[in-house]
Design goal:
With about 110 residues, the protein is mainly α. The protein is built from five helices and no strands.
Length: about 110
């Protein structure tokens, strides 16, 4: 992505929604299947969720709080909520949008 055309909030929302929907439709065996660097696909998604939430809180000047592990079947919803929260927090922060989009796309690739 070039400096002249940073990613838009819409691009991040689209990527988050697509990945969240994919996690919502995964079977239990797929959710719990290991991927490089994580004990499971759900674990990789939870790591992304925690990163997105942490970034949003930091941008809002809020103290850090860890998103709880609500189980493999909840991670799609957690991803949707934290991704949308980050989009709101990063409206005027193209660098934060770019970093978040890169993280979402990497998790998408890793968990495919």
């Amino acid at each position: 992505m070039s400096e002249a055309h940073p990613p838009s909030a819409a691009a991040l929302v689209e990527a988050v929604d697509r990945l969240a929907d994919r996690f919502r439709s995964m079977s239990q065996s797929r959710l719990l299947g290991a991927v490089p660097g994580h004990p499971s696909r759900a674990g990789a998604a939870l790591a992304l969720v925690r990163t997105l939430a942490s970034t949003a809180l930091e941008l809002e000047g809020e103290p850090p709080r860890e998103v709880p592990d609500a189980g493999a079947f909840a991670v799609g919803d957690q991803l949707s909520v934290t991704g949308h929260d980050l989009v709101i927090a990063a409206q005027d922060r193209p660098e934060a949008l770019a970093e978040a989009l890169a993280a979402v796309l990497e998790t998408d690739r890793l968990t495919a």
